[in-house]
Amino acid sequence: LDAAGHDAFDLIGGELATELSRAGSSPAESAKRVLAKWRRFWGQLPRTLLTREELLGLFAELWFLFVWLYPAVGLAEAIQRWRGPFGSRHDFEWAGKSVEVKATTSSRGRIHRINGIDQLLPPEEGELLFFSLQLREEAGATNILPSLVNAILQRLNPDVDALSRFETALAQTGYSPAHNEEYSNLHLRVIDEGLFSVRDNFPRITAHQFCAGVPAGIERIEYEINLGTFDCLRIARLPQDGSIFIQ
Question: In degrees to the nearest 10, what's the CA dihedral of 208, 86, 134, 47?
């Protein structure tokens, strides 16, 4: 109804008509392909830059998705399991398991900030795993967030539904490719990565540790953990070693 949008609407309508006139693909797939293209275009509109901490956190989640989860279950399924951007308690969730992902650039080792007293609680039915990614900023390092995003996008091209879900998840995190030039300035070297089982003496604070419950008036609890002396809880050091735990 807004005349200012008529030109764009006509352009998309023309592309839809062209795609639908071609033989070899269903009308539904043709429409999905055109709309996915324009969704990506609109996603380029500038947004607020992610903070350094947000960039590191997103890099760690996508690293786990692409390097660890993708080889074990396939890319479309890995994206289905990425639930953090949609408000889930843990970054990755599926039947029987959840994975909390954390990144650190601390020079003192695997030191991670835990946000909230419930973050390291296991799912109601199943176990919780903790993925630790230790990074170092280096000018000569080859890992940058936009390259990781593009690597996933390229492999998703044939799967319109998975591509749409991935782009929606990225948008939910606040990531926009409009800022790729700025994001490309953060070069990261992976120092250490590993999967830990959150059980037994894993360092964490939970509500049941307070005999009378969380003290009245306490709105939020944040703390740091150091996994340097908890190798006994480490169940995988490399992606292929962790496949059995993330099926």
Answer: -130
Residues 6+ apart with CB under 8 A from 73: 81, 246, 247
Q: How far is CA 89 from CA 93, 99, 124, 128, 195, in A?
A: 9, 10, 12, 11, 18
Instruction: Say how far apart CA 13 and CA 175 lie, in whole Å.
Output: 28
Rounded to two decimals, the pTM is 0.84
Instruction: Give the pairing type, strands 92-94 and 222-226.
Output: unpaired
Distant-in-sequence, close-in-space partners of 207: CB < 8 Å, separation ≥ 6: 117, 118, 213, 214
Phi and psi at residue 159, in whole multiples of 5°?
A: -105, 95
Backbone phi and psi for residue 5, each to the nearest 5 degrees, phi listed first: -100, 0
What φ, ψ does residue 107 adopt, rounded to 5°?
-80, -10
The helix, strand and coil proportions of the chain, stated in percent and rounded to the nearest 5, come to 45, 20, 35
The model's pLDDT over 62-119, given as tens digits with 9 standing for 90+, comes to: 999 999 999 999 999 999 999 999 999 999 999 999 999 999 999 999 999 999 888 9
Q: Structure tokens of 172?
A: 């939910």
Which residue is it, tokens 């800022």?
A: 179
